[in-house]
Each structure stands twice: as structure tokens, then as C-alpha cells.
TrEMBL record, chain A:
This is Eukaryotic translation initiation factor 3 subunit K. Belongs to the eIF-3 subunit K family. It is found in: Cytoplasm. Its main location: cytoplasm. The lineage of its organism: Eukaryota, Viridiplantae, Streptophyta, Embryophyta, Tracheophyta. It comes from Dillenia turbinata.
UniProtKB/TrEMBL annotation, chain B:
InterPro entries: eIF3l (IPR019382), PCI_dom (IPR000717). This is Eukaryotic translation initiation factor 3 subunit L. Component of the eukaryotic translation initiation factor 3 (eIF-3) complex. GO terms for biological process: formation of cytoplasmic translation initiation complex. One of its GO terms (cellular component) is eukaryotic translation initiation factor 3 complex. It comes from Dillenia turbinata. Coiled coil: none annotated. Residues 293-492 form the PCI domain. Component of the eukaryotic translation initiation factor 3 (eIF-3) complex, which is involved in protein synthesis of a specialized repertoire of mRNAs and, together with other initiation factors, stimulates binding of mRNA and methionyl-tRNAi to the 40S ribosome. The eIF-3 complex specifically targets and initiates translation of a subset of mRNAs involved in cell proliferation. Keywords: Cytoplasm, Initiation factor, Protein biosynthesis.
Amino acid sequence: MGREQPQQQAQPPSQMSYTVEQLVALNPYNPDILPDLENYVNEQVSSQTYSLDANLCLLRLYQFEPERMSTQIVARILVKALMAMPAPDFSLCLFLIPERVQMEEQFKTLIILSHYLETARFRQFWDEAAKSRHIVEVVPGFEQAIQAYAIHVLSLTYQKVPRPVLAEVANSGWILEKVHGRGHQLIVLPRNEFNHPEVKKSAGESVPLDHITHVRLTYAPAMPATL
Amino acid sequence: MASTYDYEDTANHQSQQTDIGYDPNFVPDSVKSFVVHLYRHIREKNVYEIHQMYEGSFQTLSDRMFKESPWPSVDAISQYVDQDHVFCLLYQEMWFRHLYARVSPTLKQRIDSWDNYCSLFSVVLHGVVNMQLPSQWLWDMVDEFVYQFQSFCQYRAKMKNKTEQEIVLLKQFDQAWNVYGVLNFLQALVEKSQIIHILEQEKEGLEQFTATDGYDYNGGSNVLKVLGYFSMVGLLRVHCLLGDYETGLKCLLPIDISRQGVYTSVIGSHITTIYHYGFANLMLRRYTDAIREFNKILLYIYKTKQYYQKSPQYEQILKKNEQMYALLALSLSLCPQVKLVEETVNSQLREKYGEKMTRMQRHDEEAFALYDELFSYACPKFITPSPPVFEERLVNYNQDAYRLQLKLFLYEVKQQQSLAGVRTFLKVYSTISVGKLASYMEVDEPTLRTILMTYKHKTHAVDPDGKVISTADVDFFLDDDMIRVIESKPAKQYGDYFLRQIVKLEGVITDMDRIKLE
């Protein structure tokens, strides 16, 4: 859930990312591309873009040659994966990281943060994130991405959410300010098929046209010209 | 043949190789006759006969004369087949496969088998092969290739009891069964065969592949194309062994598993494909996709396994069948969408795992032990692809990969612990206040709100295109502090009904046409 922002690099990043993506698609099992993939992670961080495929490719190469693993890069990949929630990217990355690496302090913290997000414990999440600024603030756009995830979960769940709940989940102080003396207020969330069942398009099974034409062709033109 | 092994790769019925009684240069008459005929059939591209000999005669001779010893060496038989280089590579491939199945291979033999695959695949990749081989054999090659890789990684990771000699060999032949080599061979077969392009062209009607079961009726060879095709399944399998489920599924994408295809033409390939597809989806939390595919294949096996009773694949089919029931039990415990399961499959499932599933849904300590048990029984044999660090203390690290995947799976199960409780209440109430439900569940209100949001998050998977799909069997939404349960009426299936009636009508009209009126 990263957002694009204008970048100030010498080489237009879009050109670099095109080449790396090509490498990942055409020649992924190649130890020589490891430095390119590492640079690409840093580029994703600074330009607020994201590529799961490239990052998985790198984690695989680290698996094949553990002595070349950079825990700093891995940490960045994990933060980016957290920002991709609700997609399960964080778990996908963990599957590829050896257990003993996951025992290191910074990874333990990231796993706890992921756990809080997966179980919708937003208040604990923001508390813990505040304590671990050095890990998460390395990646610009982190707070906005998590807020977007929080809003996503809220809009799946609530038609109308109490303002304090929204403020806590989204970690947004300014929402709480408005509550002063006005008592309990409700925010109405955008309608979607998950919080408004009537909006849900009918499960509608669609019958593709070629199923019917196929049936007709099986029984060759048998209809007489006149009935 | 590739998997009558338990996790530790030491099946009890295997014997160690002894020099007593095995003379690699002795060629019994039946073997001489076998290779002469097989060679002729291959030259004459008589696929039917090749298949009979490959599936039938080879098994019979193995059972009769080579129950616990290898076949005669390739050097001994090459004189009967004009020293044909390619035939010798094929013979060696069968030779090693037989070895792995009956006798425990030595390190040197593992390395030699790798060399043989390199030579064989190189010949195929150079495009100079003009044979037509049965799909069964081509599938077995890829399947065995991946299996021997997996076996090698397991073997190499058990460093504790390695002899000096073995360590020297391992250091010397560090390219053998190297993970880059394995992956790049599979990738090369996919690319050189242009199979992805062929499959796409086939959709437009510009190519024939599935329709001919991969065989080439224009005088060409099916070997590269079909090996390329099966290599996609091979890649899925290797990626699952590494724990990279997302990429594994990507490798399988060109094959449309909602339809028949060349992958269903060989039972082993069909089962391996769906087993790994289902497992990958289970780990990706796409439970309904896993359930649907397991359901389909378990039903298929139920109906067809009688036809394979005499086949060498029978044991393997049964084993995978049991494992997939276990995976289905896991999937359904995490995502109770029972209506996705066919009646026959469901009753088999109840018989095998009914009681365990009830206990698993309680999400207590005992439940976790059961999740552990089923997962460990049914999971692939994960590997650590990197070679050992010889300078460090020699330990066994062959279980590391499995332990990590198990730990992460159980972690996910734990996160879903509270969901079962919510589900029970939602099934009973149409509306209930947050306060009331919180007191029933013996938690405070803020905790209940997080549980409800967790339920929503866990039951709404994000598909590869970023779309949100609900896998919830019972759903709700919150209106401030009232929980309103969403009624889900199963959609009436009109489409099927209409199609059936159309077919019936056509039938009647055809019949009427046949009536000759005086």
C-alpha cells in the first residue's frame, strides 16, 4: 500500500526497476543478480514503491547462500511487507528466513508488530511502533500504509464506527480532538459489499455463452426450417 | 517409486549394498532381450510398445531378478544397443531410479546420477532428440529429478555421521545437486520448449498440444515439449520444498487446473500438481481454493484407484490420498466451508479425521498438538538448499526447514484461535450487542472488537489481483455496537438447470427428426 512520490534520483527509477523486474522474470536463479536486487530494495524504500516478486527472489538467493545475507536489507523487506497488508506478504517472507535469523531483536520486534496487525490489536501496535521508531521510520510511508490497512479492516467490519474506536485504530490524534464535549459520535464508513450485505452483487453464476453454443452444436442443426 | 520413504529417508525394507551376489557385468538373457527390444521400439517410435515395456516388463524383471540389487551396468548392455549414447542415458536414468527405490544410494552414486541427468537434459535441450516417449516416462524423469534433489539435500544436511571420505567427495563435487543447477535445468526446459507460448497459442486454436496428449503426430518429437510442460510442475514442487509458495504457484500459472490437460494424463502428475497447489494455497491462507481442489482430486482418486491396483504407482497414490485428506481436514478446521466438499469425500473425511477435527476446532492445547500432527504427516519434505559449512561443528540440520514451516503454520493457527468462538455465536444470533457477546465470551468490549476485526481480516483473503474475497461461512457487520449477522441464502443455480433443459430439448428434437412419417 505504498504511495508514489516524486523522486530525486539521477537515474530515472522507472528505468532501473524495469531492468530488475526483467531479471526476476527471466533469470531469477542467478547468484549474480543479488546486488541488483539489494539495490532495488533500497530503491523501493526511497521511492515508496514495492515489488513482492523481486523481494522473494532476493530472500531465496539469501537462502541459497546464507553468508551473503544482509539483515539490514531483510529488515527493510519485512517492513515493506508489513505495509502491504492485508496481503499476507509478511508471512511469505518469513517462510524464507531461517529461524535463527528470526530470533534477532529487530526481527522479533517486527514479528510482534505483524502479530498485532494480524489480530487487529491496533492500540498495542501503535504503542510498540512508537517504541521501535528506529526500525520502522527507516521506511517512509510506513504510518500512512498501516493507517490504510486499519481503515480497510474497519470498513470490512463496521457500517458505523464510534469515533474513539476509529481514532485508536488509525492512530490519528486529530479525530479525537473533535470529540470534545460532543459525546459519542459515529463515523459512517463507505458502503461496500462487506459491511452492507444488500450491496453485494448477487452471487450470480454466469453461464458463458460458449457453453450454450457448444450444446447446440453437439446436436447438429436439427431444427426444421418451419415449425 | 520416488516416495516410499518416511521422513528420515531410511525405509526399513531397503538393504545396504553389498558386493556379494551383484556382478554389474553379468547380463541375464532376459535383460539382453529387454534392452534390445526397448531400443528397437524407441527407434521405431512405437510409443505403445515402449510404454508396455517401461511400465510392465521393467517392473516384472525388477521384481523377479533385481529385488534388492541394481540392474546390470550400462557398460555391460551398451554392446547390445549399438552403444547408442541417448539410449544409454535413458537406461542409466531407469537404472538409478531403480537403485533409489530398492537400495540406499551411496554418495558417489548420487553424484553419478546427477551427471546422468545433466547429460540427458543437455541432449534434450540441444534439440537433437527425435524420439517419442510415453508421457508416463517423461513425467517420471522430472519427478525423480526433483525427488533425488530433495533426497540429496536431506542426506547432505545430516553431517553428524559423515565419514572423512564422504566429506572430501562433497567438497570436491560441490556442483552436484546444487540448487542453482536444479532450478536452472527446470527453467531451461520450460523456456527452450516454449511450452508457455504453445499453451497460449492453443487457447487461440493455433496449436495442438493437449488434444494430442503432448504427442507429436507430425513426425517430430514430444520429449522437449512434454519435459518442459512437466518442469512447470517440477518448479512448483521445488519452490514448495523451499517454502516459497507464492513463486511456486506462479510457475504453475500457465497450466489451467480447472480443466483437463496433459498434467491429468498421468496420474502421478495429476496428484503431485494438486497436492502442491493445495498445500501452497493452505500456507497462503487461501483456504477455499485449497478445499476445492482437494475435494476434486480426492473424489477422482476414490473413483479411479481400483484401476491402478496393479500399477507400480499404487502405493504412492494411496499415500498421497491419505496426506491430502489430512490437508483437507486442516483446511476445513481453519475455514469450515463444508458445503464445498462432495458427499463421498466428506464421509471418507469424517471416517478418517472426524473426531480429530472436532477436537481441533476447540483450539486448546490438545488441538494444537493435532494441528501439529496432521501438518507433520502431510507436509512436503522441506529442504535447506545451502551446503553445510564444513569449518563449523558438524551437526544434523535436515529438520530445520520443516521446523520453521511448522512453527509458522501453528503461529497462524494460534492467531485464529478466537475465531471459532465467534463463529458459534454468530450462527445462533441474528443481532447481538457488543456488550452482550463480550460477556458471553468472557472478554471485555475492546477485546471483542479486536476479535471481530480479526475475524473479518482472516476471512477476507486478498487474491493476486488485489481483490478482496470473502471465505467466511457466516458473516456480519457492526452498526456502532450492534452486531448484525448477515443472512446468506445459497444462490439458486439456475444456469445449470437451464443448460440441462436445453440439452434435453435438443435430444427430443433429434429424436423427433428420426421419426419417419408415412
